[in-house]
């Protein structure tokens, strides 16, 4: 029999040494949000367009009776990348359970533990996107992880 306290203590040490980040991709860019901001991930939810909505709002989705705003992440962060309008995006449901939103992304990555010493403030400029939506960055061995400011990405203005 395994003592669950030992497992929990070990998990806490891992988190204390860094931050658990749920990762996802749009084009060549790797984005992430702290796992505590992610509620769930869904593929290919039907999006109903909303007339006169801002360009980054793909529409609304019905998630088990709850209506959510679907935000195209690439458009929201000003990503300079050719968007596939007909793509079947993945939906990262994030925010609070009372006011969740769906971030539409091209591909889902893994949940990774980013060591605290590798998390840095964002540079003044990141090629191809608006840095105001970036909370932190982390230089991973093979690429740059852009940790989003979830509050700003979800904000309606």
Automatic annotation (TrEMBL):
InterPro entries: CheW, CheW-like_dom_sf, CheW-lke_dom
One of the Pfam families matching this protein, by short name: CheW
GO BP, sorted A to Z: chemotaxis; signal transduction
Protein origin, superkingdom: Bacteria
Gene3D superfamilies referenced in this protein's UniProt entry, alphabetically: CheA-289, Domain 4, SH3 Domains
A GO-annotated cellular component: cytosol
Name recorded for this polypeptide: Chemotaxis protein CheW
Native species: Thermosulfuriphilus ammonigenes
